[in-house]
Amino acid sequence: MIANLKPYAQYKDSGLPWLGQVPAHWRVMRNGSLFGQRSQTGYAELPILEVSLKTGVQVRSFGGAKRKQVMSDFGKYKRAVKGDLAYNTMRMWQGALGICPVDGLVSPAYVVARPYPDVEPQYFAALFRTGDYMVEIDAASRGIVKDRNRLYWDQFKQMRSPCPPPAEQAAIVRFLDWANGKLERTIRAKRKAITLQTEQKQVIIHRAVTKGLDTSVKLKPTGISWLGDIPTHWEVRRLRTMVRSIDQGVSPLAVGFLADGDSWGVLKSGCVNRGVFRETEHKRLATDFAIDPAIAVSVGDVLISRACGSPSLVGSVGRVKSLRYRLILSDKTFRASFTGSVNPDFMVYAMNCRYYRHQVEQAISGAEGMANNLPLSSLKDFRFALPPMVEASAIANHIDAETSAIDRRVERLEAEIQLLREYRTRLIAEVVTGRLDVRNAAASLPEVNQRALADEPIDEADELDTADEEETEA
Questions:
Q1: Cα 12–116–99 angle (5° rounding)?
Q2: How confident is the model over 347-368, as a mean pLDDT?
Q3: pLDDT: which is higher, 404 or 73
Q4: β-strand 327-328 against 265-267: which pairing, if any?
Q5: What is the CA radius of gyration of the chain?
Q6: Is the pTM of this model over 0.85?
Q7: Are 207 and 255 in contact (CB under 8 A)?
Q8: pLDDT at residue 461 greater than cutoff 60
Q9: 240 phi/psi in degrees, rounded to 5
Q10: What is the tens place of the pLDDT at every residue in 17-48?
Q11: pLDDT for 292-345, tens place per residue?
Q12: pLDDT at residue 391 in the model
């Protein structure tokens, strides 16, 4: 069905350089003619809503904290009605917007836009998230620092948008729901395949880092339930006895672009994930930021995620094997420097196995304040099964050889997922700007709940994409 989509029969100039031509029967209207601002306060008993770059507007979970302790002044919070469009003024240029699923309260840092009759807000939410439109949003935003530019209502209402007839807006939303569901199911199937491959790798790693390579070696009890028996000549040591230092970075202002030329970048919390270092997970620093050489990232560094939007990614460890960018540590990332008697590659594997994850989960569940935070004092007290240096090197090489094929399969699946996401982004942009006509396709779709996937949990790997960008003001 998607492959058979064609352009409209007739087009006209939209008058907007970024948009070009639109279908001849579409209108181009000011946002202020499509939405009105809602600025009501004083509804303290409504649930709190927040904006996520990944999932749009959702009811906020306070993670056990009392709501009144989190909200500094709920009297300033704005009322939003189910179906309203809400956006974060500071992150609208990144797509931080969505449609309110229920009546609720939103942060004073949000704008609440009430759709007028014959306006389908889901269509405009999709339009506002397209790349070209976000460039226009960025240009219309105002502020002293670019990364903190705000799109206020006065600027938003003056922006102009393509506007199909009401029935066609609904048809576009219906088609995109169906197409997104189809693509999302394919992505989830590939994610499940990645999970199975990862579990297979975990079995190989756990066996090697707790029992070694010699199946005939005698074992001894450690007295630690989550570690079990280990070879008699191995030690159980705390991390603090194996490192020279554990460094932590800073949290400077940065823009959401990659470093280039002579510029530097600061790592994001998602820079390490399940044993893999992702150097593109960073933000560009201002050119006048003073770089501290002590926190510059180098090849060979072992990095540990201290804090992350997803609890399952806190404590993730990876080693820097190559670098194309000049980067520094963030305050959400630790760097462990091991002593000469400890093999770093062995430790990276040990810090990606089940018994290490058990210790991380215990540490973050008992941490005060932010639940998704790994305290340095807890990390230093983690215990590990440690073989002699020569044996540790052999184990690391063995794991490399045994898991390389798995890594290649995972890389291929992740590349396929990335292509599907890019295709989905292009498809949405072409449909909401009138490049493709979906009216007949939408009319032929079966009567099913196209948004059933919205109730499914977000995949951890998806959370990684925007972990640093979650709205925290609400």
A1: 95
A2: 86
A3: 404
A4: parallel
A5: 25
A6: no
A7: no
A8: no
A9: -60, -25
A10: 999 999 999 999 999 999 999 988 877 788 99
A11: 999 999 999 999 999 887 788 899 999 999 999 999 999 999 999 999 999 999
A12: 97
With bands split at pLDDT 50, 70 and 90, how would you rate the model's confidence at 65?
very low
Nearest Cα residue to 229 out of 252, 244, 212: 212
Q: Which of 397, 381, 391, 360 is nearest to 236 (CA)?
A: 381
- Report which residue type is found at 464: L
Residue 369 pLDDT grade (very low, low, confident, very high; cuts 50, 70, 90): very low
Distance CA 56, CA 96 (A): 7
Q: Is the pLDDT of residue 451 over 70?
A: no
Which residue ranges does the chain devote to CATH 3.90.220.20?
2-187+413-469, 222-386
The residue among 323, 274, 316 whose CA lies nearest residue 301 is: 323
Alpha-carbon gap, residue 462 to 97, rounded angstroms: 17
Place of tokens 């201290």: 306
Specify the fold of 222-386.
Adenine-n6-DNA-methyltransferase TaqI; Chain A, domain 2 (3.90.220)
Q: What is the pLDDT of residue 146?
A: 60
CA–CA separation, 360 and 305 (whole Å): 11
CATH superfamily placement of domain 2-187+413-469: DNA methylase specificity domains (3.90.220.20)
pLDDT, tens only, 66-117: 445 455 566 788 999 999 999 999 889 889 999 999 999 999 989 999 999 9
